[in-house]
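Quick one: structure tokens for this chain, please?
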Amino acid sequence: MSTIWKPSVTVAAIVERNKRFLMVEEETNEGIRINQPAGHLDPRESLEQAVIRETLEETAHDFTPTALIGTYLSRYASPKTGDDVTYLRFAFTGEVGLQHDRPLDTGILRTMWMSYNEILNAEHIHRSPLVLQCIDDYLRGKRAPLSLMFTHPSVL
């Protein structure tokens, strides 16, 4: 019986406030990298629930998604570990709410509010090429209503 290939599904929050973007600095196998609040879809959750959870875990901020910026497919081959993973990323924009007094997720060193130029100048340490692509799409005004997404109750 053959194995069915499956991409790794991830979510990301693209949050802008006062012309600055909410970013995280994180420890990876390739060293310290910059990313949006992002992470994997967990079993028994919708994509919207995943981005809310990941944003809270990585930034200690509440997050309310308001639109889907886009879906992105990319492949990553680690030069250090040899891992080869294809990611299917769903990027959302929305509003951040309260910041809670809680520890950040394992591996997250800190949160930062960065200008577009600061993000562009740090491109060499982005977690993936999707970091800049998602911000550029956000700045171009790409938005899809959340009503285009449906999660069947059997998932939850």
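The two ends are 29 Å apart (CA to CA).
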